[in-house]
Each structure stands twice: as structure tokens, then as C-alpha cells.
Amino acid sequence: MPKADTKTKILDAAEMLFAQKGFDAVSLRNIVESAKVNLAAVHYHFGSKQTLLHKVVSRRFRPINKERLAMLANAKSNAGKHKLKLEAVLESLFLPIFRAQANPKAGKSFTRLIGRVVFDRNAELQKFMLNELTEVFVEFSKAFEEALPDLEKTDLDWRSHFMAGAMAHTLCNSDLLTRFTQTNANDSELETTIQRLIDFTAGGFRAKVSKTSKTNKNT
Amino acid sequence: MPKADTKTKILDAAEMLFAQKGFDAVSLRNIVESAKVNLAAVHYHFGSKQTLLHKVVSRRFRPINKERLAMLANAKSNAGKHKLKLEAVLESLFLPIFRAQANPKAGKSFTRLIGRVVFDRNAELQKFMLNELTEVFVEFSKAFEEALPDLEKTDLDWRSHFMAGAMAHTLCNSDLLTRFTQTNANDSELETTIQRLIDFTAGGFRAKVSKTSKTNKNT
DNA sequence: CATTAATTCAAACGATCGTTTAAAACGTGC
DNA sequence: GCACGTTTTAAACGATCGTTTGAATTAATG
Question: What is the complex's ipTM, to 2 decimals?
Fold first, then answer.
């Protein structure tokens, strides 16, 4: 009991504070105060502040990415001989992580943290995230190509990145978004948020490619 | 000459470093070392680190926002009695800030910084940014409504935020994006980037609203 | 129960932080 | 050249930082 408890207390406090203020603005003393544990426990259990961050991220992100891949595989097998639907691919990507917001334990902290992490340029963290996301990148890239066979690779990649930005912004600022748009943050609204994001990004993926951007590729 | 130079040196160094590593991870000593000025000069010229950040942002962001508003006004007067085109609104919003990337002095630092700032949850900074962006919000909101008269206000707001995420991600990570997509970062590619972003976001704004998201609004 | 391993604790280390202070240096106008 | 204003400078302040250390406490094992 108490053995696992200190560690979890630290992880939870760190998750909340990193999400609120960012990695660099939160000290270990902030975390241990919030967690009501001793400062040296952080080094005992995690070794360093950086490692703590990685653990905070990976403890929830790994299962999420696993679920993403499972949902995608399911969508593929459901499609069978038909073409893989873009909306199914997008849902597989968004649903697991947005569902994490409904977790009463983590609530919005974790997803806010993930949204922030996407924008963080700390080299150590980028390396770590790339490692966490490699398989997701590979599999979803292939899935997007399959769902959008007529879209050129370069355009597909750019649109994937725009989509990632839209998703990260939504994850990171969902409380601001709901306040600004006067919608509620309950469970059913979560499905609505996801649907809204799917509508927007699917619309973006399917948008006609302007002549300018296509022509310029050949120069 | 030397009178303005120290101040500008500090601003330039801060811009670059804040963009690279974020506000909290960069110390004043990092900045003055890079700028080759004395530590106390920061307080003499700017008063505090926080104020320095605001000045770094506002010195370029204000003219950009001014230009955005001017371009929008121009687009409106060009439209005359016709409906304002969504693409014109988007271009007015994106072009001035993406053009800042072509500035050899600021290059990518400033836009990367703005991209990061959108995601920063520091209360002081959010207040400051809201102040800088109020007029842009108001005018562009109206313009989007005009360009998309059939889109419900709530859906419009959500899509505006998705668009903001896509834009911020692009601003923040443009070097990663160009490397990942194997495109070049020269001037003509800038126009291409903007066009790609317009294509995607316009596609998103015009996407059909799913039944689910609409129905749920009434519960 | 004794021994060993694991965990927690308080204190300290060496470093760095934003800010302040007062003196020195420089610039300006008469 | 002098008086005054502005800017730069080096040093210091009080605080905080991540990490380390060794002792105390607790848990596990035979």
C-alpha cells in the first residue's frame, strides 16, 4: 500500500502541476508540497525531474497509443474489401486520447499536458515523444494514405500536421474552448467535441488542393 | 546608436532564446550572454523579465495585427456588395504573420515564439495576449460569420479554434514540418505553406456539420 | 527475532535565479 | 568645461533550484 502510494502521489501531483504551469516553471518542491511527500523521494523513485516527466507522460500515453492502434486495426478489419474510411481513421486517433479527459482521476490535466508537450522544443522531450509515437506515426500514415489514395504524399503530410495542431490545441485548451463557446464539458459533450474535430479535419483532408500549391511543387 | 543598440540586442537575443527554449527555461543571464550586454541592463531598460517578454512579443505582433485588420478591411471593400470570401478572410489572418518568417532579422524565431505563446498557460501572458488580440478576435469573428452565414455560431467558434491550433502548430514547428515533408523553406514555399493551410482550414470550415454534434446542442 | 533491503527523512551542497544597489562612464546642452 | 541626465557596470542580496548524503524508519525474509 504505502509503497506504491508515495510514487503515485508524486506522479499525480506532477501531472497536475506540469499541465498547469509547464515543466520548467514547476519545481520539485512545488510537487512534493502538493503530494505531501519528502523531496528526496523524487530522486529515490524517479532519479531525476526529467525522468519524472517521462513517467508522467508514458504511464497514460502508452495505453492510449496502444488503444489507438487497436482501434485502427479494428477499423481496417471492419472495412474488409472496402476502402478504409477517413472518419474511422480520425476517430481511432482522437477517441482514446479525448476519452482520457473523462477519467475523473486525471481529468483534464493529462490531456492538457500532452497538448503542451507537442509544442515543447526541449530536445530530450522531443526524442522521448518521438519514441512513444513512432508506431502510431507509421500506422496512421499508412491508414491516411489508404483512406485518401488520391492525395499526394506531401499534401497528405502537411494536412496531417495541421490536423495535429488542431488536436493539440483542443487537448491543451479544452477548458478555454468550452468556456468561449459556451458549451459544457460533460461526457456527451466530449463525443460532440470529437465529432466536431472529425468534421473539421476530415473537411480539411478532403479539401481540393489549390493549383498554386500543386504547381509550385514542380519548380 | 549605442543608446538604442543595447535595448535591441536584448530584445533580439530574448526573442531567439524564448522561441527556442521557452520563457521559463531561459534565464536573464542566458540572454545577456547572448546579447553581450550587462545583466542589470535588462532591469534598467525593461524592468522585469515578464515585461521583456511582452515587449519581445508586442514589438512585432502589433504591426502584424494591424496589417491583418488592414487586409481584412481591404478584402471587405473589394467584396463590395458580394459576400466576403472565406479564403480572403483566412489569407488576411495568415499572410501577415507568416510573412514575418521571411524577415531575415527575425526569421523563424518570432513566429515560433508566437506559436508557443498560444499554448502557454501563464496567466500574466494570457491576459497580455488577449489584450493584443481583442480587436483581431472581434473583427475576424464578424468576418467569418459574414463569409459563412449558414454555419451556426457555436460550430463557427469551435472551427475557429481548430484553425487557430493548426496555424499555431505551423508557426511553431515550421522547421520540423518542412524537414518532415521534404519541402523547402524559401520564399515561394512560404506562399505554398499559406495556401496549404488555407485549403485545409477552408475545407474544415465548409465541412458538413454531423447530425450528432447538431442534435446534442438541444439536450 | 535478527538481518537485510527498501523507503523516508532532514539537512546540506553547489549552482543559479530575478532583482537591487551604488558607482563609474557616457551623452547632452549651455 | 560644467552640470545634469542617461546608461552601463560589477557586486551583492535573498531566494530557489535539482541533486546528494547519511541516518532513521519501515518492510520483507528466513
Answer: 0.89
